[in-house]
Structures are given as C-alpha cells and as structure tokens.
C-alpha cells in the first residue's frame, strides 16, 4: 500500500495535539492529526458533554479548569478558539474573584485581570479547538483512526533509529518528517517505541490519587464562586471548579490506596459525605447534571526520549501528557500541554526538523529547561500529600523537615489573610509565575508571620471516622 505523506503527523488530538497542530500550521507546516476517537456530535455544550464518546481519554468528562497561564497563551495564539468557547456558553472566570469578598483581601485590584480564564467543560474546550484546527487549510484531521505502529528506518552505523511515520489500523500508512506523540496519559506512543525494541526513559510514581466528581447546574450558584478551587481536609481534598452554561463540578480527591472511601462512587454516599463539609456542602445543592464520575490511577509519570545525553530515537517527540503527567489537583495539564506545543513551535523556528538528531536534542533540552522543573514541583507536592493522607488514614499527623512542603503549607495558610500573599499564591497556582514571586518585598516574612501557629486544615470537616460512617451508612 502506498503511504500518504505529511510533513508533521500528530498522534492524538487532545489539547496537546490540537494546540500543536494550530501552532505548526500557522508556521506553514502541513499537519495531519490522527485520533482513534470519533468526531464530536453536532449541537450545543450539553450535547458535546453528554454525547462525545472518548474512550481514548479516561478523564474526558472529569472536572477541568484551564489555568490563567494556559488561557493567556490560548487567547494570544488562537483567539478564535476562545470565541468559539464563549459562543458555546463558556464564561470569563477570574480565579481570585471568589476571594475578593474575604475581609482581609479587601476587594479587586486594577491588575487582577491577569487571573482571568474561561470556565468551560473539557469537551466544550476541545471541540472549540478542534473546529479551529479543522478550518485551517494546513491541517488534515483524521478521527476514528487508531495508530497501531511506528514506522522506523534501520539505523546507519553509529546512529540511532529514526521514526518515519505511522501505520494505522486497517493497514493505512502515513509517512512524516516528524511524528509528534500527543497520545496522552496512556502513552501509546511510548508503548509503540517499546514494541520496536526502543526504551525511552520512564519514571512512574508508585501511588496516585482518585477523583469522585459530580457536575451540577444552577445559574444562581454558578455565579457565586468559592474563594478558591481547592480545599484541603485531612484524608480528602475537595475541588469546586466552574464550568460553562451554568454548570460546575464538585470533586472528592482521595488517595488511590484509600479502599475505605471507594464507596464515594455511590451517589448517596457521596452526598452524605459532602454534607459533612460546611464550607463546600452547598455546592452540591444545584441540579445534578451527572452521576458520580470516578477516575483512579492518577499517578505522576515522566518520559524522555534522550537517555544519558543520547537520543533513543529521532523523528519523534512527545508533548503534553505523553511526555509527563501528574496528579491533576492543580489543573496544570492543559496549560503545560499548550506551553509544550509552543516550545515545539519555537524549537522548529531554531532548528530544521530535517536535522533529526539536532532537533530531538534541542527540543529535549528545551523541555527539560522550561517544563521539567514545573513537573518536579507537582511531583514533590503529590509525594508529600500522599504521605500526609496515608498518615491521616491511620490517625497520625504527617511531619517532614522538607522545606518545599513546609513552604507550600505555609503559603496555603497565609493566602486568605493578606492581599499580596493571595496574589503571589494565585500567580503561582495560575501558572503565571514561578516560586520566585515569593521573594517579592516582605512576602516571605508575611507568609511566615501569618502561617505561624495556623492549623493544617483551615476548613471545618468531619474526623475520619465520621466520614467513613457517612460513606458506609445506608
Ligand atoms: C481527573 C483529571 C482531572 C484533570 N483536571 C484538569 C484540570 O482541571 N485542568 C487541566 O489543565 N488539566 C486537567 N487534567 C489534565 C488534562 O486532562 C490533561 O493534561 C490533558 O488531557 C492532556 O492532553 P493531551 O492532549 O496530552 O492528552 P489527552 O487529552 O489524553 O489526548 C490524547 C489523545 O490521543 C488519542 N490517542 C491515544 N492513543 C492513540 C492511538 N494509538 N491512535 C490514535 N489516537 C490515539 C486519544 O484518543 C486522545 O484523544 C486532568 C486530568 C485528569 C486525569
């Protein structure tokens, strides 16, 4: 069979693949985007949410928020995508707006616009990007087509193997100068490399988290936001994220190892449990849009195609979750994916993809420099939080002398008490700035003073025994 030819083949059409396609096509590249899942149904936001079957993305219906850092990049690079989301019912959302009414924060400031994003459910966001990609003459979208195998070229002596394209189910082949693996958490691109005897570096955490989410709707409640999205309690965290069209989600985040709380996937148990948290309980009073959506196995993973300074393979790079993923509690996945796509575009401006070795090495180095520190920070947080939850599950209090965790806990305790600390925390959590903002004048001192003696968990909630009793009752 003759192979079709594309100069860039993108394996996977999630946020990473779509953003990569849009950015590379804008540079004049001919891009083919292949995804195993079907196209979206026609219709409005609710039709997209309920009707788009995405077996290739386990978290497709889960709670998602695009952070301001990702929104800013999207609005700059693809404003049409944002317009489409707004047309479909997405709404502007400022991640600190809910905190403006907190006494110590003292209302909005002129430069709070940087904390803006869009509140939009994941299928609506993705359908908007897809529509923009499909409208671009440089992008060919192939949906419902699974990539089964990578086509590689025999290496010349002293060189590593080079990927030359992909083979799809049904036998279709597509050759490409560059294959971009955007296959998501499942990392099917890395598995295909292993199938041909290549071994990318891979680091996976031993344990992870589990989400139990329900979506609700009420125009009234949707416009009254909590002061922040995430609330830490002893052995659970609770996330409240805004969506489009008057919807929002409420999520219990537990350790994946917490078998005793698996009952949260039952709707009645979930409701009995949320009633025990006075700060968050009223968020479960809207009209339910979904049953409980449970997603487990949320472990950090990081892969790299350059090992000990040598590329394992050339002609292929990984972006987004196919490169690295973490516990999604901080909602950084799509923003990281967008940044990674922009980094790939920027690397292409510097290095010709025909020089496959130089291209692979330059992109790997750029990824390591710009994105790996972020992933390491999330991974460290996950490790400590899981250790903390493990302790709480057995009635013990977690302590560590790791300054990383102590600083994060102190920042969390101080953010509601000082308007500058709040904004420093939001700059970090919105992925607008790194931890260097904590070096702003007097911030460090104020965090230390405001967090001294603060209890670890600031919001009222049940002790573990009461929570378990609620989950198992009935
Ligand atoms: C529970 C949960 C909650 C989350 N919440 C947030 C949040 O609030 N904010 C945020 O920014 N991020 C969040 N994330 C992370 C976010 O979902 C991911 O970072 C994002 O989906 C990454 O996009 P991606 O394009 O890399 O991968 P994916 O979205 O997984 O897309 C991969 C695509 O590749 C396709 N594919 C895979 N293998 C093949 C193959 N062999 N052939 C053809 N196609 C293939 C799949 O069908 C899929 O469409 C969350 C994740 C989870 C698990």
Radius of gyration: 23 Å
Q: What would CATH call the class of the largest domain?
A: Alpha Beta
**In percent terms, what proportion of residues is strand?**
15-25%
Give the fraction of residues assigned to helices: 25-40%
Low-confidence stretches: none
Number of helices: 15
What class, by secondary structure content? Answer: alpha+beta
Number of individual domains: 3
Global shape:
globular
Distance between the termini: 61 Å
Oligomer: single chain
Each distinct ligand: flavin-adenine dinucleotide
Largest sheet entry? 8 strands, mixed
- The number of strands is 21
User: For this structure, what is the CATH homologous superfamily of the largest domain?
Assistant: FAD/NAD(P)-binding domain
CATH topology of the largest domain: the name is: FAD/NAD(P)-binding domain
Q: Architecture of the largest domain, according to CATH?
A: 3-Layer(bba) Sandwich
Mean pLDDT: 93
Keywords: Monooxygenase, Oxidoreductase
GO molecular function, one term: FAD binding
Pfam family, one: FAD_binding_3
Protein name: FAD-dependent monooxygenase
